[in-house]
Amino acid sequence: MWYFTWILGVLLACSFGIINALWLEHNEAMDNNGEV
């Protein structure tokens, strides 16, 4: 059942990347609002 762990790993990596991108966008928006 190696494919099961492989799918879980891919989904985990994708979700981590999406969460990281959203977090960076949120931080940039907060920084821009704070400077203005």
Please characterize this protein's 3D structure.
This protein starts with a helix and ends with a helix. The chain is 94% helix and 0% strand. The protein has one helix spanning 2-35. By secondary structure, it is mainly alpha-helical. The protein has 1 helix and no strands. The model has no long low-confidence stretch (mean pLDDT 88).
Q: Can I get a quick summary?
A:
The chain is mainly alpha-helical and 36 residues long. The protein is built from 1 helix and no strands.
- Structural class estimated from helices and strands: mainly alpha
DSSP strand (E) fraction? under 5%
Cα separation of the termini: 54 Å
Radius of gyration (Å): 16 Å
* Low-pLDDT stretches: none
Mean pLDDT: 88
Element order: H for helix, E for strand:
H
Report the helical percentage.
Answer: over 70%
Write down the overall geometry. Answer: rod-shaped
Number of DSSP strand runs: 0
Q: Count up the helices.
A: 1
Largest sheet: none
Protein name: Cyd operon protein YbgT
Keywords: Membrane, Transmembrane, Transmembrane helix
Transmembrane segments: 6-24
Structural descriptors:
36 residues; mainly alpha; 1 helix; 0% strand; rod-shaped; YbgT_YccB; transmembrane helix; transmembrane
